[in-house]
Amino acid sequence: MNSSKAIRLVYAQNLLIFIVLNAGRITLSLYALDIGASASDVGVVVALLYVAPLFISWPAGVLADRFGARWLFALGSSVCALCMLAPVIWPTLPAFWIGALGVGAAIAFANVLGQNLVGVLSTSENRTRNFSNYMLLGAMGNFIGPLLTGFAIDHAGFPMTALMTSLLAALATVLVLIWGGLLPKGDRRAQKSSNILEAISAPGMRSVLLVASVVQVGFDSFHSFMPVYAHGVGLSASAIGIALSAFAVASFLSRLAMPRAIAIWGEHRVMAGGFVFGALAFWLLPMFEAALALSVISFIFGLFIGFSQPITMILVFAASAPGRTGESLGLRLTVTNFMRVIGPVMFGATARAFGLAPLFIVSGALMCVGCYLSERMARR
Q1: Cα end-to-end distance, the chain, whole Å
Q2: What is the pLDDT of residue 139?
Q3: Which of 10, 63, 66, 222 has the most Cβ atoms closer than 10 angstroms to its Cβ?
Q4: Distance, CA of 118 to CA of 10 (rounded, Å)
Q5: Which domains are present in the chain?
Q6: What single DSSP character describes residue 192?
Q7: How many C-beta neighbours within 10 Å does residue 202 have?
Q8: 306 vs 270: CA distance, rounded Å
Q9: Cα 343 from Cα 340, distance rounded (Å)
């Protein structure tokens, strides 16, 4: 097996699916509004994008360990390609639910299988670099997907844009059908996990998953409520967009710098430092109202918390039992997707009851908990 060619195949397939996720999310939302759906209807469509990752991620990892990734990759992307045809053929609200579930299935399989294969196909010397490159694919998808979709909607209309998204997913299927023989086959003799609780109880796994949960809640809290705060102090939509762009640019830069930073300080110390600056960003946020200041704070948060998400992948892979890395990475995604569902609801209730300033203080304190957990893992 040529591991370098296999990794390039994984990168190509996952990049297409990351583009599909961003294209599908925008197309389904705006197309639904175009046919007369309400804002709450669109909210349901967006929420359905994350239903499949919540329930599929762990089983997908278990299956990948035992049977390999080729046909699971093909299943996820082909289901997405078919489901995205539903709004083209039948432009009613249930069709958008189908499309959202299909896109969610594709991203669930792509994330679990892609992360696992990057780890399996890497050596101890290049694993950090390869995981960093993998995370850069997500940033590229965040850039290409919306840009491509915006032009497609303006020039070709919603049905053709949905069809384009379907074709991109189909192309991802074709890639793995043609070159999927490069990928590892899996091991049917691998020990089967009886349930998800057994997987969580693996040595060191609970600590890593707890840190991953803190990262996800902090990420979603900042990304969700910083724009709300900025709007509340009177900033324009363009100013808020610039602040969010600063966040995205910083996350991209942090992943470029991650291999070097880990080589100097190690995974746990880098992550602990990221939590410190994340807490600082949360606590500074309610002290400023100027667009430039909020952009700088957003950049700081993205730069340092941007390290944390790929590092948790590396730590979960390292904590996995032999032959069960896919299961463990699927478990991580299940946990983080669960936090994506309950985190905004929990923090939204806090903001509604006490205001945004206490929310940012609590979020900063949560970052300090993440720092403590990272330091404790480093000492171990």
Answers
A1: 36
A2: 77
A3: 10
A4: 8
A5: 3-180 (1.20.1250.20), 202-379 (1.20.1250.20)
A6: P
A7: 19
A8: 11
A9: 5
Largest CA distance in the chain: 60
What is the C-alpha separation between 247 and 97, in angstroms, rounded? 30
Q: In this structure, what DSSP letter does residue 218 have? A: H
- Helices 93-121/39-48 angle, 10° precision: 30
For 26, 86, 95, 240, the CA distances from 163, given in Å and listed in that order, are 13, 9, 13, 31
Euclidean distance between CA atoms 345 and 8, whole angstroms: 38
What's the pTM?
A: 0.76
Q: Are 107 and 51 in contact (CB under 8 A)?
A: no
Provide the CA 84 distance to its chain's centre, in angstroms. Answer: 21
Around Cβ 89, how many Cβ atoms within 10 Å? Answer: 10
pLDDT of residue 216: 83
pLDDT in tens, 284-331: 999 998 989 999 998 999 888 888 888 888 888 877 777 777 878 888
| Residue 285 burial class via C-beta count within 10 angstroms: exposed 0-12, middle 13-18, buried 19 and up | buried
In DSSP notation, 337-367 reads: HHHHHHHHHHHHHHHHHH-HHHHHHHHHHHH
Q: Which helix (H) or strand (E) holds 246?
A: helix 237-265
Q: State residue 132's pLDDT score.
A: 83
Rounded CA-CA distance 328/4 in Å is 23
* The 3-state secondary structure of 104-149, one letter per residue: HHHHHHHHHHHHHHHHHHCCCCCHHHHHHHHHHHHHHHHHHHHHHH
Say yes or no to pLDDT of 359 above 90. Answer: no
Dist. CA 11–CA 329, nearest whole Å: 17
b/e 53-86 (16+ beta carbons within 10 angstroms → b): bbebbbebbbbbbbbbbbbbbbbbbbbbbebbbb
Residues in the chain: 380
